[in-house]
Structures are given as C-alpha cells and as structure tokens.
Amino acid sequence: QIENEYGNVAYAYGNSGKTYTEWAASMAVSLDTGVPWVMCQQSDAPDPIINTCNGFYCDQFTPNSDSKPKMWTENWTGWFSSFGNALPYRPVEDIAFAVARFYQRGGTFQNYYMYHGGTNFGRTTGGPFISTSYDYDAPIDEYGFAREPKWSHLRDLHKALKLCEEALIATDPQISSPGTNLEAAVYKTDAGQCSAFLANVGTESSATVNFNGNSYDLPAWSVSILPDCKSVAFNTAQINAAATLTPRFVQQSTGLDWRWINEPVGISTGGAAVTKPGLLEQINTTADQSDYLWYSTSVEMKGGSQGTLHVDSLGHVLYAFVNGRLAGSGKGGSSNSRVTLEVPVSLVVGTNQIDLLSVTVGLQNYGPFFDQTGAGITGPVQLKGLQDGSTIDLSSQQWTYQIGLKGEALGLSDGSSALWTSQPDLPKKQPLVWYKTTFDAPSGSSPVALDFTGMGKGQAWVNGQGIGRYWPTYIAGSTGCTDSCNYRGSYNSNKCLKNCGKPTQQLYHVPRYWLRPTGNTLVLIEETGGDPTKLSLVTRETGSSSSSSNNICGLASETITPAGGGFLSIACPSPNQVISKIIFASFGTPQGSCGSFSHGQCHSRRTHSIIEKACVGSRSCSVEVSASLFREPCSNSSSNGTTTRSLAVEASCS
C-alpha cells in the first residue's frame, strides 16, 4: 500500500492533491516490487494501482477499472475510544451482514480492522484525546481474550464462506431481486458448482424468499449463505455459538509502599529554558519531545487586587498557577480540543508569578492540513476585572518557556533516582507529584493491568516502559448508552454506546513480558492530584467469580448452523465432570452475555425445566432450538415477525 485514505482529504489541496497522488503512485510502481500496489479510499488511483474501500460497509463499492479486484482493506469491527466519551461497540450481526453482503456482490478480499484490540503505550495515542486502550471492541480484545459471541460468530461466517470458495473464485455473481428489499446472488460454474447468497436489506420485518423451488425465512438485515444453492449453512442474524464466561478483572494487590518527589511549579531546568516575547505554539516549540510546556511570566502590581485570569488555548489541557498555587484548570475534548480558562485570582503588591502548564493528549493525525493543527496557549492571556476596572493583557510581554517537566529531565520515569522521599506524610490530592512503588508480578500467566481508581490524570511507567496516559477522572456523558443495540440498519460509531457516566478508561494494560517475578518498579507523574494508595494491580481472568470457574454457556438462534443442525450444545470441559445445575435458561429474547444473561421481553417459562431435564447429570447435552419445543414465547408481542428467537443457557459443572 502507498498512502492511507489520502483520497478523503486530497480535495482540500486542489491540483496539488492530484499531482501528489500521481507522484506517489508512480514512485511506488517504480520500485518494481513484483506485487500489486493499492491505495485505499482513492477513487482516482492511477493504473495499475488498485483503489480499495475502507469502512463499515463496502458491498456497494466498485473499483475504478473492470480489471481491478474489489477489495475491502479495512472492515471496522468497532471503533476507538476517546477520553471523556462513552465506549462504542458494533453488534456482530451487523459485521457478519456487511461481510456476507460484500462477498454476495463480488468481493475479492476483505480485511478486519481491528481483529485484535491493542494498547497505545507510552505517548503513541493520536486523535487528540484517543484513549490509551485501543480495544476497539475487536473479536479478540486488548488482553488477548476472544470477545464472545463476536469471535465465534465470525468464525462460523468464515466456515460458511469457505464452503463457497470454488464457486466464488470461478465466476461473477448473477444478482436478482425476488422482492422488495430482497436480493439473491448466485455463483454458478460450468463445472456445476453453485453457491448462493440471499439477503434481506430491510430493517423492519423478516421476509420469506422462494428460491430454486424452496422457501427460506430471512430475518431483517441479514444474509443467508447457501454453499450448495440449497441448504442454509449460515445466517448473519442468527448467533449459534457456545459461549465462555466473560473475562473479568481480579484484584491482586493494594496498599503498595509509595515514595514521592514534588515536581516544581514553573521554570526549574535553568539553562534549558528560553525567553521570548509573545506566546509560542506548543508543538513547534516542543517538537513533541514531551506532553508538557511551561509558559511563565510575571506582572507587577502597585496594590493588591482581586481579578480574573483569562487564558485561551488551542488545547489540550491547561493548569494555571499564580504565585505557586494552582488557581484553576481546564480541558478540551475529542470534538473540540480548545480550552478557555477563566479563574478568580488574588494578586499581591509587587511581583506576581504567572505559570501556565500546557499539556497535549496525543496529536492530530488525520484530516486536511492536520500538520498545521497546533496546540498550546496562543492567547489572549489577560488579567481582567481588576479593582481599578482595568485589564492587563500579558500576551505580548516576555514569556519564559520550559519544554517538559524537571522530573522528565532527571529521568525519574525509570525509578532509579536517589531523590525519592519515603517520609510518612505521603502527599495526596496534590498537583504535580511523582510517585514510585515496587510490586511483584502476580502468579500465573493471566494478563495484568493497573486499576487507577483514586488517581486523576498523568502518565505511568513500569520498569521504565511507558504504559501510557491515564485519566480515570474524565467521565463519559450520562446519556446515549443502551443495554442492547439494534443491529438492524446502518451502523455508525455513535449508534451503539456503553459505559455512560463512567470513566472512559480506568484499567491500563501492563504486558507480562515487561515484568520480572519480583521487584518491579511503577512510576507515576500525577498532574491534577490523586491518592495512589487506592491504586491496585489486577489480572484478567475468565469467569465471573471463583464459584463460577466451572460454568459453561451456550447461545443459539432458531436457525440452521454451519455444523448442520438447529441445536444448542454445551459440554463440561473435563471428562470427569457432569452438568450439575442450570443457572440460567431462556428461550425468547435473552439479553447479556455469558455470566450475565437476563430475560428479555419474550421468555418461555418452560425453558428451565426442559434444559434441566435434558442436561443435568450428563457431561454434555444438545437441545433443539425451536418454538415447537419451548412454545412460542413472543406470540403476544408487537414484533410483527421481526423478533429473532434465541436460546441462552448457563450451567455449572462439577
């Protein structure tokens, strides 16, 4: 690949954008690599560069030449999170629908972004304001666990597509419309292979399709895959996957022994400081060597006065100190990084020191002219509403600048300094404090994280490695989240949200391979003020509690599975175990996931007794998923045929 989604921004550069696109393509081809080159989101990609699609859906995408394959280079399985925002998630039924539609309409290549979530360690987050976690609601989460039922449902989708492989690679689809919002695509070869895709792109009602002499029920917003043009191997809206218990975080240690060093306010690095008239833009000043830039000046007052300090900043976070004391702070957000701060201040007779600490939270990394998006204090900086009614504009006077904190210059992040204090009066809820402690790695091999409960905002290092920016006090808004999200209809990153009213991120991944068995060093720089004694070490485990470590789950919809049957099957993990108890069972519209299932609007009261009779006392059991067995649980609802009935079971093995 050459460039990345440049076509989305090229318009802003006019003819220069076109010239650059052609130059980049020519340069890439001239390297004579022997393999094709692609440009994603570049509809005018010059031959022989293949233009490709990125997005939530690419079934309607067409390359700019019939000689180029239809390629989907980024299928967004979720979305990234930003500090101060709720967490986006994407229902797997919609992802599967998008993938099936892409191959239904002649797709050649599809790649997931992301399939495995990750972590923005150190200062690598962009945005600005993108969180340290880049979990992305991916099929494999940030810690390496399968996210169910997303992982299993996509696995079953891939199995069904694999069954169609010979027909898919041999010919183009013949597409027809058997009814409103319905589409049939048939791949049929001269050698007799035949595979079909039946789609209902409507968002309201299920539909019945007559195809090749047979009748097929299609839920709304779903695709059925028929590898032999007869039998349904998979439907995108019907989840049929044995589920594991949702991974949980288990506290391992608290009450760590902390030491500290106070970070001085204002200019403290001597020769590293520079004095210039006026206010400097931050990124060009720091060259991104640090998140931090001090702006310091002073003002002479003939008499003491109350007033208001006004500061305008391009972002992203601002702390204002007057005569060494924190007067106030402000922060931007992912939708607007600018900060306007107005705080009351008390000025004394004589010299008053004004120290402003500007902090970046990742840099702009996409969009037209993103390289020109600045940060830091650009003014005005004013003292307003003084007792004599005057306003003093400080913007153009001499300012002294210091890149980074003194603790950064001293290398405190690796914990090796001899300056750490261990007196009993540990400072808490105080701005600009470095903290250090040591800990032993938890036993076992489970992934490790730090729970930053009690802390404000800052950065953290383990054995000198930056685990990222932490900010558990930036709380997501209280509205916009839903317990369950309707997968029907086009998805966008604001459609399905969770975690409203909670910290965007409270848990921060610490890779096992960074840890020693004993004597690991944790260093924090706390900006706003926190209580490190509340911080704890946790591990990521499967199961909801120690008593449920032998629990098993299953979730299946009323349809035919890739394995060939409309059944839910569960089995104890050990050959010497049997199913001893049914913890939860519901046929209808159950909600939640393994370990937290709950009854939905529709529920058959016969479910528990039927599952108990079929499963208890056996190592494994298999139960048909059908209304004829459990009886129709939604007959009195107003679903009008749109309800997808499922069976959810959680059982205990002993």
Task: Describe the protein.
With 654 residues, the chain is mostly beta strands. The chain has 4 domains: 6-172, Glycosidases (TIM Barrel, Alpha-Beta Barrel); 247-262 and 409-542, Jelly Rolls, CATH 2.60.120.260; 274-404, Jelly Rolls, CATH 2.60.120.260; 551-653, Jelly Rolls (Sandwich). 11% of the residues lie in helices and 35% in strands. A 6-stranded antiparallel β-sheet has the order 19-29-20-25-22-23. Strand 9 (174-179) and strand 10 (182-188) form a beta hairpin. Helix 2 (92-104) packs parallel to helix 3 (150-163). The radius of gyration is 30 Å and the shape is globular. It starts with 14 loop residues before the first helix and ends with a strand. The model is unreliable at 544-548, 560-565 and 636-642 (pLDDT under 50).
Across the major sheet, the strand order is 19-29-20-25-22-23
Q: What is the CATH C-level name of the largest domain?
A: Alpha Beta
* Poorly predicted residue ranges: 544-548, 560-565, 636-642
Output the CATH homologous superfamily of the largest domain: Glycosidases
Number of strands: 42
Q: How many individual domains? A: 4
| Residue share in β-strands | 25-35%
**Measured distance between first and last alpha carbons:** 53 Å
Q: Note the main sheet.
A: 6 strands, antiparallel
CATH topology description of the largest domain: TIM Barrel
Q: State the helical fraction.
A: 10-25%
Number of helical elements: 8
Mean pLDDT rating: 93
Radius of gyration using CA atoms only: 30 Å
Shape: globular
**Name of the CATH architecture of the largest domain:** Alpha-Beta Barrel
User: Structural class given helices, strands, pairing?
Assistant: mainly beta
